[in-house]
Amino acid sequence: MPNLDFAEDFKNYNSGGYMMKDVKTNRRKFLKEAIGAAVGTMSLPYIVPSPALGKAGNVEPSSRITMGFIGVGGMGTNNMRAFLSQPDVQVVAVCDVVKANNEYGHWYKKGWQGPWFGREPARKIVEDHYARKTQSGGRKVCDAYNDFRDLLGRDDIDAVCITTPDHWHAVPVLMAAAAGKHIYCEKPMSLTVAEGRAMVDGVRRCGVIFQTGTQRRSSQRFRFICELVRNGRIGRLKKVTTPIGANNKQAPPKDWQPMPVPDWLDYDMWLGPAPWAPYHKDRCLYTFRFGLDYSGGQTTNLGAHSIDIAQWANGTDDTGPIEVEDLGGEFPTDGLFTTATKVHFRARYANDVELICKTDEGGPLRFEGTEGWIQVKDDELTCYPESLMTSVIGPNETHLYQSDDHHRNFIDCIKVHRDTAAPVEIGHRSVTICHLGNIAMTLKRRLLWDPEKERFVNSEQANRMLWRSMRSPWHL
Ligand SMILES: NC(=O)c1ccc[n+]([C@@H]2O[C@H](COP(=O)([O-])OP(=O)(O)OC[C@H]3O[C@@H](n4cnc5c(N)ncnc54)[C@H](O)[C@@H]3O)[C@@H](O)[C@H]2O)c1
């Protein structure tokens, strides 16, 4: 199991987000989450001969997917463990600009003993896993790289999992696609709208399979809610409220001082396409979420989950709102942390559905329609009318994409070459709304948006915020 206590949005890890109490016993089966359903037999290391393996020999080599992991910090290690547990996945390489560190303790809690993250701890996890399975005595089966281009250059890798900070999603995704690798990329998919569109185009052009790490798309619970909304069980959808958790880390003092770069970190490569800036531990490793050069803050970090469900329920996966307006978002005026401290914006769709996104720790994700409402709050689903809880979606009604395990879904889709639960356009469209919200909150105004052209209609200043230049030599 992943470390659920690790960080705010890890709550969502592979459980599809909030747990719902099954208020009716006969709903239990329908709403039950299938966590790690595919965990069964073991993998076959590609250099370990089959006779050394027990049950793994049953897995045909031709059906094995070889994977490399780019970014093996907190979530990357969780992703790697999830793929390691797939019987037909072979992890052959990891990559991180951190060799090994347990620096997370400085913000996590006193007395933090680990775990250690980085490419060497990740390699050890992989090799221990295969050594345990094969009694091969720790034979080398996994390579560890500092530079992701070395990993992408290998022609024996079918797929990559990219779990780098948000400013480091677009470039490796485009390079991986060009190298013909299938891609599992963490949410929020992009740092800017223009990056996201380039990622959609690149992935499509190269014909590779893509999964965004928005694992609520593989939750029976969220699918059930979205199917209720899509099939008119609350009448015509009028309003969606998407809560955003508060910033969960204390900013360093305003007079923070640069720190020496630790020897376990390739800091220039960590910054990558972001502007050069002096090192401070709170700039990197998890807390990058609070720097606008690396992330859109909780707006994109958590909005990528909750707004994605709003998009799914509203049936707007391939489009977006037509208007976005600040309702009182707040940004710090100085200091190392620059992302919104209070998120509050409104978006309106062409079908007149209103989306309110706001900082509301533990608040409900709520759908209101002309004839009822449905919400998830504090791990509990409630609705009006209550009978919705036992509603069954009929065979002739709208049934949404079915996936119960996000990582498994990615592997299955590679094998049959079909779209995943959260393909690139969906990942792009959901985080686009988060980006639009950040822009509206920054400019403090109502902006009109053309979701076809992906341009603002009434502000060139806002249009200039749809992309950012990258630090040389990085470019899209
Ligand atoms: N789906 C989810 O629920 C979920 C949960 C947590 C995080 N995430 C996402 O995962 C991503 C990473 O977040 P995290 O919390 O794991 O951060 P993290 O800082 O713990 O891990 C990121 C890792 O990427 C490494 N890295 C940075 N630049 C690199 C490069 N050029 N090449 C290789 N490695 C590089 C860092 O050294 C670090 O080890 C973010 O986009 C975040 O939004 C998703």
Q: What features would you describe in this structure?
A:
With 476 residues, the protein is an alpha/beta fold. It is 26% helix and 15% strand. It has 13 helices and 15 strands. The strands form 2 sheets. A 9-stranded mixed beta sheet has the order 13-12-11-7-10-9-8-14-15. Strand 1, helix 2 and strand 2 form a beta-alpha-beta unit. Helix 2 packs parallel to helix 3. The longest helix is centred in the last third of the chain and has 20 residues. It binds nicotinamide-adenine-dinucleotide. The site of nicotinamide-adenine-dinucleotide (NAD) has 33 residues, from helix 2 and helix 8.
Average pLDDT works out at 86
Q: Fraction of residues in helices? A: 25-40%
Shape: globular
Bound molecules: nicotinamide-adenine-dinucleotide
The tally of strands reads 15
Strand content: 15-25%
Give the N-terminus to C-terminus distance in angstroms. Answer: 36 Å
Q: What is the N-to-C order of secondary-structure elements (H for helix, E for strand)?
A: HEHEHEHEHEHEHEHHHEEEEEEHHEEH
Which regions have little confidence, pLDDT < 50, spanning 5+ residues?
A: 1-59
Q: What is the CA-based Rg, rounded?
A: 22 Å
State the secondary-structure class: alpha/beta
Largest sheet: 9 strands, mixed
Strand ordering within the main sheet:
13-12-11-7-10-9-8-14-15
User: Helical element count?
Assistant: 13
